[in-house]
Design a protein that fits this description.
Helix content of chain A: 25-40%
Shape of chain A: globular
Radius of gyration of chain A: 20 Å
CATH topology of the largest domain in chain A: Dihydrodipicolinate Reductase, domain 2
Oligomer: homotetramer
CATH superfamily of the largest domain in chain A: Dihydrodipicolinate Reductase, domain 2
Strand content of chain A: 15-25%
Distance between the termini of chain A: 30 Å
Strand order of the largest sheet of chain A: 11-10-9-8-4-7-6-5-12
Number of domains of chain A: 2
Largest sheet of chain A: 9 strands, mixed
Order of helices and strands of chain A: HHHEHEHEHEHHHEEEEEEEHHHE
Number of helices of chain A: 12
């Protein structure tokens, strides 16, 4: 693991996700840019001191030299955005598979270069767009793909949060500090942090690609340096239109990711607050309530479900699904076997590049007087 | 009553709304442009045949000649949009108070002229933006007005419907026919029919005014002549921003009007499907669930509530609240008394003019390559 | 109308319900045992002074003497329980049809006698068990009757309220006073007031009859004279079992009537707080959400629906459905025609007798050391 | 681990729960009464073959002989009910701390003897009543304990499931087979499997103890040998009353555990399907919605929460909370330190004995003609 030392939120989440299905063992780490902190974190996590490294460079270098059956296989990188590209690139080039937190890089340029590195090295790559790990999000994608809803016409995707309603970065909140700092976060604040999740969710569920967008991007809280609120009209490659809303200043909201998709014959709705429910709506018959664990759900949903219907699975399980599917693919690949389609259903390089392109375009559109801009990569 | 003959949806709703509180008696009507139909409707409604008229002109003319204590006092006009202006204008000029279905007129020009007529005649005027009649919508406005949420920053308002997902106007559906016909409906289809409701709701609840907008307007169903889908970014006169979504092609949705408003300290959420609930959210304490009939609700909510908490009031009661408040104001005015603030809280000429301006601007923006257009009247 | 003078809750509800569909006109009344109050109420309601009577006896006597086309046809009785039997009996014997508030009488003996009078006079009779007027409750009954759920096995019905959590009857609350007073209310407090609603709902939806019960009846608030809380195990005539819960001391609850019914193949759930939704659950497929106004609903639901799907109908509309169906039956009967099955679907004498028997048995069981008592009439 | 070999549901859940917080390492096991199966399970789980044992007796014997720093510390027992007592007793007597699945034993006698053993050996003991591990259930207990609701008066607790609606035990379903088999399950079927959860939840949240009960116990599905449906009236030691409902034949229900508690001033409601929400209701102010992760929640809730508000935590996290708290207490004890009150808040021997007493009494009451029976141990 690179990053994720004491006090980091997402590092702990990654560790739980990795452990949950017993598919990974944490064997080494470079947990902080501060070697003392890295050491302390490694100790806390029960690692052998000799496998807690001062830098990721040292980690890769030393681990490469270990015998194959002892060496780390997958590098999980959970640093702030500006420290994504270099460690990920070097990890791939050092022969490791990589799991990387989103957004993929600091800039689209880096993303495109990382894509090239991944293609060249042939190493596997997973980007942790958590929401696509929920069984009912997977089901949503399958419902759309089945054609039951007819041609998709409209997409509403939203991600309202309230935690940046005040000038959090003025205080001790480390999360708030780096996420609102252009030097660490990149061109976008909220649009990078949560807008990319919404964008990814829309493309994942519909199987469509955005081709044009028009954005309204705002900095609401005084003194903030990056966007904390925004919305975008979307146009998709099949002619459908959409609205994306992402805000961090919706005071009183937690993390209420939601997507609605409408086709010619019906629609669907999924919301993280009731994550185990997928509503499938019809023009002329009652709404159907699909539930995690339902015997009628697709193989994609069932493969990502651990407990019988009625035992709520949550955010950590969704996260763990990414890790587990990635592990299944890594293991299959090592064994020279073809992974199942259900295993391969995790976000990767392509999703990362599109996410970075979303950031570039949505921020550019926010500054433009022109209504529509083309979404090109 | 003008319009609302047999088979008309909204005419029947108006009659129930008028009757519900026993504040009105239906005494005369010109129910259809077809005199036979008008007569038949009048008979069905139990009116004296001599007070069922062939035209609204005849109605006004004859009623004016009746003794004051027999003559109709309030004219309710429930015709399609292109037959709003003339009958409303003539009614006001004939000395009657007027209740008119929304959108106010066929064009903004007509609206401005009607405003002038209303000002000149001094007659009272009510426009039936139903959603502002719900007790919990009134409560929402009071919560914002109280300042508890702090300065308002963000507004999301949406009105997804699915009933025009197919080419309904190709068949017998009279509702679908006129609402999608530019000659009867005006410049806008869905934006006029339901977009204006969403717009009115946003301005009503926040007490703010839109100053700029940027719209994406679509005709989704092949063969349709007017918009059936759209969205707009909004900017308000206090600096807040918003997103408005209104669509008639969200297959599987009924009539799911919803508004969310966020200020510096908290937010609120109301949705017609759970109309008797208002969620008030806070940055640092539990969400509060306000309920119709709650002893803690404002005088505005309580005045518009008929039953104790726990007895759901619905759409017809919300509609009836407009009628009832208008009756209270008419009666007070006739008696030379000042109406209470709670009674005056119904939509009128100003809301009608702004609604027509919304239609003009949102359609113009939909056709423009420029991002923002100023909302001016 | 008998009873329902100024300040009475349920009298006003009855009047709105009667008016809502324009099927009744209020023509006369004896609104209070106090002639002055009766007069004042009649005036407020806009009645001719000569048709506001000092007593119900006078009302019946005088109205009988009016020409048939002027005379009142239906008597609505909305007095406290101890003044149900005499006015209802005399009304029937005077040749009027009767609408009576529940529970039907003060005692089971009275109920049985009233049944005999109704049978003898042939006059129509409606008991206002409001909850059976909701379209989705009617749909629930039809779903069970269709056999789709298989044989019914389990019924949960509940009616939690909180308004009697404190010693309300110690103050000015007139509602609380008579409802907790054995001389006015009868043998039961909460079990009569709301327990009978729950009981009626269970028998109505399932089409079954209770044959045995075992009750736990409590007086929770100190000083109260009648039960304010209770529960009963039920056994039905097809072998199904059930649990009924009704309480008035569930602090913080409004009027949260709910019923769940389970058969061999599926179940259903309806709750007044989301009155326009009926959940139909299945062993092996997604839950279906039936909605008021849905094109797929039964003729019984559709007949009792006024507005398109998505326009919430509430308590007053449910109440009005009882009045409207009764009016349709009265009118058909007067015209010598057979009423439609959908019109006849309102609670009547039989339901009233069973409700009074429920009160007798549930109170008796509450006092008994024996577990089960037979429910016999 | 004792039991929980391939194909067992709850064994896998225990393993995830143990791993999730990295507080346990699975080091040895006797996974099945069939040594081959045990071996295969151990292999699958990546254990050293020499620490996969044929029997639990062998496991304890061999592990005791290992050096203290290698030896297993906590035994987790996840066998069917009839194989709880012996392995648990022997584990305690062999010097191990024990985690045991519920219900604690096959009979109350065994439970009382196990209590005696635990007292005597001083070893720690945890019984996995999962629902008490949810942060919002812990919050519920704290809300009651704070006295804010006033004296508790009424408790409704329910656990409707549908999975035994058909004669599942007639087929291959191993879960169904042992849970409906008196020789493996004990005196009760559903009352033991899920009724004990409901009972424990009621006592845990209220802090009260049941002193009397009256039950209606049924076998609904033909051919079944143990109860699959039941309900009980409860009386608590402070005078409050309650209703407990547990059924396995509510076709279409998943695992919908729910509790409602009402005091003099307010009430609360928690339901597993929306596990991260606790509704706190008040007589005279809006309902408050407490949420997992809310800054206003108690130290007990926060200690059991891993992610910020808005990231749903589910069943596995609730289960993991039991394991984690037990680990914290074991570690503290080993270190000679006093565990924090938050850590000690897991179900133990006392809860196990009361659960077994519940089974005895509820089944006895189900067979009795007498209404109330005393709940004594």
């Amino acid at each position: 693991m690179v990053g994720g030392g004491q006090g980091a939120f997402i590092g702990a989440v990654h560790r739980i996700a990795a452990q949950l299905d017993n598919a990974y063992e944490l064997v080494c780490g470079a947990f902080s840019s501060n070697p003392e902190k890295s050491k302390a974190s490694g100790e806390m996590l029960g690692l052998s001191p000799e496998r807690v490294y001062a830098t990721y460079q040292e980690l890769y270098e030393k681990e490469k030299q270990l015998p194959e059956d002892q060496r780390v296989q997958v590098i999980s990188i959970v640093t702030p955005n500006h420290v994504h590209f270099e460690p990920a690139k070097l990890a791939l080039e050092s022969g490791f598979h990589v799991i990387l937190d989103k957004p993929m890089t600091y800039s689209l340029e880096e993303a495109l270069e990382l894509q090239e590195v991944a293609d060249r090295t042939g190493k596997l790559f997973c980007l942790t767009h958590t929401y696509t790990g929920y069984p009912m999000v997977k089901e949503a994608r399958q419902v759309v793909a089945s054609g039951k809803l007819g041609k998709i016409r409209k997409v509403y995707v939203e991600y309202p949060q309230g935690w940046l309603s005040t000038f959090e970065e003025g205080g001790e909140n480390k999360q708030a500090s780096w996420r609102t700092n252009p030097e660490q976060s990149g061109k976008a604040g909220g649009m990078g942090d949560i807008g990319t999740h919404a964008f990814n969710l829309a493309e994942y569920v519909t199987g469509l690609e955005v081709t044009q967008l028009c954005a309204d991007i705002n900095i609401v809280v005084e003194g903030r340096k990056l966007d904390d609120d925004g919305a975008a009209f979307l146009r998709f490659n099949n002619g459908a239109s959409g609205v994306l809303m992402a805000t961090q200043i919706a005071a009183g909201e937690e993390n209420n990711v939601k997507i609605r998709v409408y086709g010619e014959k019906g629609g669907l709705e999924w919301q993280q607050e009731i994550a185990n429910t997928l509503q499938v709506k019809w023009l002329d018959k009652p709404t159907e309530v699909y539930r995690t664990g339902g015997g009628y759900t697709s193989s994609f949903a069932q493969h990502n479900t651990r407990t019988p219907a009625g035992h709520p699975e949550g955010y950590l399980e969704a996260f763990a699904n990414l890790y587990r599917n990635f592990a299944l693919c890594v293991t299959a690949t090592l064994a020279g076997e073809a992974p199942e389609p259900e295993w391969q259903d995790y976000p990767g390089i392509k999703e990362g590049v599109r996410g970075m392109a979303f950031i570039e375009h949505v921020i550019a559109s926010g500054k433009s007087d022109k209504k529509w801009i083309d979404f090109t990569i």
